[in-house]
Amino acid sequence: MSHPLSKIIPGFNLHSYYAGINMAFAEVVGAGCKQLALSSPYSHEMAQEMLEASEYAATEYNVELMVEPDLLVTKLFPHDIAKDKTVILIAHDTSVLDEYKMLKKMKKYSNEEGNPDDLEVEIAQRFGKLLSYDEATINRLLEKNG
Question: Into how many domains does the chain fold?
Fold first, then answer.
């Protein structure tokens, strides 16, 4: 897989790039600036390749990880943003991962109920707050992708 930066940076290495992103997110989450961060969407193979580096970052900054092969789909992002991809969740603590899991249960219920708009918006807003987005950002993303 090529990346646009490979045309700009001589010797660009995709694994190092992703490891750097996850280190930065782990630092930001560990410092309390964000409750939850999402890695880039990876192929399942790439996710396995990135796991050890992500675990290193988690240990370094005292955060929790969760490998998510089925990312929560909300009105915040395009529905196919992580289709057939794996994302590594970087969380401040286990309560953040518990909240994420609760949102996944809400989404399952919403799917069973035909995805009522009010419930879909609530799930998206709560996910945005979990990602530590401000209200303006949440509203902008809902308008763009909802």
Answer: 1
Q: What is the pLDDT of residues 45-100, one digit of tens each?
A: 999 999 999 999 999 999 999 999 999 999 999 999 999 999 999 999 999 999 99
Q: Which has the closest alpha carbon to 31: 88, 89, 92? A: 92
CB crowding 9-28: b at 16 or more within 10 Å, else e: eeeeebeeebbebbbebbbb
CA distance 119 to 10: 47
Please state, in angstroms and rounded to a whole number, the distance separating the CA atoms of residues 23 and 142: 28
Residue found by looking up tokens 């609760």 in the block: 102
What domain range includes position 31?
4-145
Has this prediction a pTM greater than 0.90? yes
